[in-house]
Design brief:
Layout (H helix, E strand, L loop, with lengths): L1 H10 L3 H19 L16 E11 L4 E11 L6 E7 L3 E8 L2 E2 L1 E5 L2 E7 L8 E12 L7 E9 L7 E9 L9 E7 L9 E6 L2 E9 L3 E10 L11 H24 L19 H9 L4 H13 L3 E7 L2 E6 L9 H10 L8 E3 H21 L11 H25 L7 H25 L6 H30 L3 H18 L6 H19 L2 H10 L3 H11 L3 H7 L11 E3 L5 H9 L1 H34 L1
Parallel strand pairs: 1-10, 15-18
Antiparallel strand pairs: 1-2, 2-8, 3-7, 4-5, 4-8, 6-7, 9-14, 10-13, 11-14, 12-13, 15-16, 16-17
Helix pairs in contact: 2-9, 3-8, 3-11, 4-5, 5-14, 6-7, 7-17, 8-9, 8-10, 8-11, 9-10, 10-11, 14-15, 15-17
């Protein structure tokens, strides 16, 4: 018994942990959403050496690529073993990086490409010229009205003064020289004449400057006729690929749902009574295969209605259970076992205080879980088939990968530290949001309407935020609206197909359909129907009450009987100081009693779950 109790302590469904996990991941998501991912140059340190001459030559090609050679004369400190140079990043790819003819080690640093090279032993403590070569291949712009040239022959990232700057840029033969402009200055200011001289002749640009201060940058910019660049890298195929990926995911998810994710078809009816032999405590396990604290409270209400115990409220939110009589042998075995456990060593007519109920209820929970689950072990009574579980997992993984592919394809040609982190974060967040949505949907019958709407709405917003963030990135990269909007719509269709992809076994579906018939009747019962039933069964209200409580519809059920003269129950007793409150409650009838019973249930659930959490904390502290 103790091992079962410990298992219950560690495995009972406690939404608190899930909520904290989701909240943490959601916070992480929004932190990532607002993390700067622009392509402005980093102003990271370039310290540790003096840069005497900055000689820069670039050949601009018609395919909007740049072949760049930089000769950097550096006064190398005596103890320097490696030297770091920075290449500014932008809307282009950087390749073929070499230093002094050898291959350099390059990595992304903030918003620059960091290039590390070894310092020759002969250069230590002397002036040495490093030759840095690389190729820039610009991406096809999405402006539409014109083409543009925009690049920095001198990045403002250099955080050391430069003695001499020589920049030569060779433009294509048909380049309109008159459209070229230079912008120069330190970060935060602009000065095109004070430090740098600029000239362009016969498609060759010459820029010189002396004693250039730190963080001084030079930018060349030109607005060119539309279509001037021929053969620039076109990565808009990423947008088309994303559309194809989601089309495939939609088709595959639909096929999975059609093949093994649908419940057996049943005719929806309304039932006045529950299925024969099915007690209210069993309906939740029939629905989702889980047993929870609420089922135990339903059992107490059921035993009260059957006359086995009395619930006494002797102070606000203070209760005790009074033992009245033993359940007969005709009663379900687990009900008799639960009664004996709750009233262990208690004489008839005596009460068990709330403070003493915790360990008894824990033992009752374990016994009920075992006894109820043993009645639904057959393959035909499973609430979810193995095939549908596998299909739902496959659909969840497919959709998560699809959502992660959006930032992957959008940033494939963008050099940023977040290039690889964002797809991973999106994959994790989308997976968690899909699981959360499935979890809320699977337990929807345990919530009232408003609670279900709030939880489902929150999970959908969570998922939508992840998808929309990726689509906004796609829109900003490709300047396209249609495909991102379609992807958002398809994502939600796939999400819903995944959520409802929980097929019941045939026997479970039949029994659950009958229970749903009673649930539908409780929600939609008309006054004439209730009046007719009460003529034949005056105790009908209390007979169905534990089912209404189990379905989270007790308040709705009580309102239907508010003016039908239902007598207060003998198994729920108010022993508050004075009789005015008791008389007032009796006069209000079924609705007031329903609120009292709801308060009782919440108080018991809070006390019991609090005890379980305290024991779990002690267990963890003892373990660790």
């Amino acid at each position: 018994m103790s091992s079962n109790a410990e298992k219950h302590n560690m495995t009972s469904r406690d939404a608190g942990g899930i909520k904290y996990a989701i909240a943490g991941l959601l916070i992480l998501f929004f932190v990532l959403c607002f993390t700067y991912q622009g392509t402005v140059e980093s102003y990271g340190a370039q310290e540790g050496y003096a840069l005497k001459v900055y000689d820069y030559k670039a050949v601009v090609n018609k395919n909007h690529s740049y072949d760049i050679t930089q000769k950097l004369t550096v006064s190398v400190p005596a103890d320097m073993k490696t030297i770091t140079f920075y290449i500014p990043k932008g809307n282009y790819s950087i390749s073929d990086i070499k230093v002094d003819g050898g291959k350099a080690v390059a990595s992304v640093k903030d918003n620059d490409m960091e290039v590390r090279a070894n310092v020759p032993p002969s250069a230590s403590g002397k002036d040495h010229t490093f030759t840095l070569k690389y190729k820039i291949s610009a991406y096809q712009d999405n402006i539409g009205a014109y083409d543009r040239m925009y690049f920095d022959p001198l990045s403002a990232a250099w955080k050391v003064p430069i003695g001499r700057v020589n920049i030569t840029v060779y433009l294509p033969e048909d380049f309109p020289d008159e459209d070229l402009n230079m912008f120069a200055g330190q970060f935060g200011t602009q000065d095109a004449t004070n430090k740098a001289s600029f000239s362009v002749s016969d498609h060759v640009v010459h820029i010189t400057a002396d004693k250039v201060p730190a963080n001084f940058g030079i930018t060349l910019k030109a607005q060119l006729p539309d279509g001037y660049w021929k053969g620039a890298i076109n990565y808009t195929w990423g947008e088309e690929m994303a559309g194809v990926i989601f089309a495939v995911i939609l088709i595959m998810t639909l096929l999975l749902w059609l093949i093994g994710g649908r419940d057996p078809r049943m005719k929806h009816t309304r039932k006045f009574y529950p299925p024969k032999g099915m007690l209210p405590m069993e309906t939740s396990y029939l629905d989702n295969g889980h047993f929870k604290t609420k089922d135990m409270i339903t059992l107490l209400i059921y035993m009260g209605i059957r006359g086995y115990l009395r619930i006494q409220e002797y102070a606000p939110k203070k209760y005790r259970l009074v033992k009245l009589k033993e359940p007969p042998v005709q009663e379900e075995k687990y009900v008799r076992n639960a009664f004996n456990t709750v009233f262990r060593d208690v004489y008839q007519g005596r009460a068990v205080e709330m403070s003493d109920l915790g360990p008894r209820l824990k033992d009752t929970f374990v016994q009920m879980q075992f006894d109820v689950s043993s009645g639904y072990t057959s393959k035909d009574m499973r609430p979810c088939t193995t095939l549908s579980k596998i299909f739902r997992l496959i659909a969840t993984i497919m959709l998560s990968l699809g959502v992660a592919s959006i930032p992957t394809l959008s940033n494939m040609y963008i050099d940023t530290e977040m290039k690889y982190m964002m797809p991973v974060a999106t994959l994790v967040l989308s997976f968690v949001s899909i699981i959360a949505t499935c979890w809320v949907f699977d337990n929807r019958r345990e919530y009232d309407t408003n609670e279900y709407r709030v939880k489902m709405g929150a999970s959908l917003v969570f998922f939508g935020a992840v998808v929309v963030y990726g689509c906004v990135q796609m829109w900003s990269r490709f300047s396209a609206v249609v495909v991102p909007v379609i992807i958002i719509g398809v994502s939600f269709i796939c999400l819903w197909l995944t959520v409802i992809m929980k097929a019941r076994a045939r026997g479970n579906a039949v029994a659950n359909n009958r229970v749903d018939g009673l649930r539908r009747f409780i929600a939609t019962a008309k006054e004439k129907e209730i009046t007719s039933i009460l003529r034949d069964n005056p105790y009908y209200y209390y007979q169905i009450l534990p089912y209404a409580f189990q379905f989270s519809q007790m308040e709705k059920w009580a309102k239907k009987f508010q003016y039908m003269g239902i007598q207060p129950p003998s198994w729920y007793e108010f022993q508050l100081s004075g009789h005015a409150q008791t008389d007032k409650m009796k006069k209000k009838g079924t609705v007031a009693f329903a609120f009292s019973l709801i308060t009782f249930a919440r108080t018991f659930a809070s006390e019991y779950d609090g005890m379980i959490n305290r024991e779990r904390l002690k267990f963890r502290q003892g373990r660790f």
